[in-house]
Specification:
With 304 residues, the chain is mainly α. It is built from 15 helices and six strands.
Length: 304
């Protein structure tokens, strides 16, 4: 028997654009189904150890409300925890109106506002987002998905459906580098992920405090760079998940697509790429990401 939880949504919330905003929807504990309607399922570990599959279905959106569904019977307190977690996953606190105003008056970018694009899907915790971002560095996307799946299979707790939640810091911290290399294929990333998990588990780092922080962006950037395994690329993209878009977060894929779209295939300097998006000011990183992924909205995914 499915149980329901009502989740208020901000005005102009676009479920599909959020789900497909970047690659997180393809990484467990997310699962995407497209028939008969788009459904996003997230396996969530609650603080009391309960594991619940939370289903977000496009057909369950009415006006400014979504009905979340789960087969796990939850208490009122657990429902509040689920609501808070899904608000974080769907990034519902992000106010996109200022960015869309800039997009509307920038040539070739009005579609970003018309499509209500720019809300980036996140994990249920900053710990999850940080580990996943470390797993995207210097490797193919197929390797990222494999490493993430193995990490969850090895350390994540299974719910009634058999699906596993993202591992807790404690579960990874209790392991060792050899296990992360052998069972999860993390390679050189193993010591970074292990050190991060142990720092969080021991209370030396509190990544969750970064969400909603009012600290200057440069301060948040410095904090992220202080995490082993997080370099300029990872820190800049983690900032985007915190709603800070000052930096571009360039990698080889971004540079390649930019060259194809804007310079006839000729490699542009990072300075030139920054200059191209400077018209967006503090939203330059978000504008760049949407510009480079515009074809997703046109052809790759079944957008309306």
């Amino acid at each position: 028997m499915p149980y329901s939880i009502r989740l208020p949504l901000p005005a102009r919330f676009h479920f599909r654009n959020t789900v497909y905003s970047h690659g997180w929807c393809a990484l467990a504990p997310y699962r995407v189904e497209t028939s008969p309607r788009l459904r996003l399922t997230y396996t969530l570990a609650l603080t009391d150890g309960t594991i619940a599959d939370i289903r977000m279905d496009e057909s369950d959106i009415s006006g400014t409300e979504m009905v979340l569904r789960t087969d796990t019977r939850l208490s009122a307190a657990q429902k509040r925890e689920v609501t808070a977690a899904m608000r974080g996953c769907l990034n519902l606190e992000l106010d996109l109106a200022p960015f869309h105003r800039v997009a509307r008056r920038t040539a070739g970018s009005g579609w970003m506002a018309r499509q209500a694009a720019g809300r980036l899907l996140r994990g249920a915790s900053m710990f999850e987002d940080t580990v996943k971002m470390i797993l995207t560095t210097n490797c193919s996307w197929s390797l990222t998905t494999a490493m993430n799946a193995r990490l969850i299979e090895t350390f994540g707790s299974a719910g009634p459906s058999g699906a596993r939640a993202f591992p807790t810091p404690a579960s990874i911290a209790a392991s060792d580098e050899a296990t992360l290399r052998a069972r999860c294929s993390l390679g050189y990333r193993a010591p970074s992920v292990l050190a991060f998990a142990r720092a969080v588990d021991e209370g030396r780092l509190d990544p969750e405090s970064l969400r909603g922080s009012t600290a200057p962006t440069d301060e948040l950037y410095a904090t992220l760079l202080g995490i082993r395994g997080v370099g300029e690329y990872a820190a800049s993209n983690l900032l985007k998940l915190l709603g800070r878009f000052d930096r571009l977060g360039l990698d080889s894929w971004c540079r390649s697509v930019y060259a194809r779209l804007h310079t006839g295939g000729t490699q542009a300097s990072d300075a030139d790429i920054y200059a191209h998006y400077d018209v967006f000011g503090e939203y330059r990183g978000l504008a760049m990401w949407l510009d480079l992924t515009k074809e997703w909205y046109d052809t790759k995914f079944p957008f309306d």
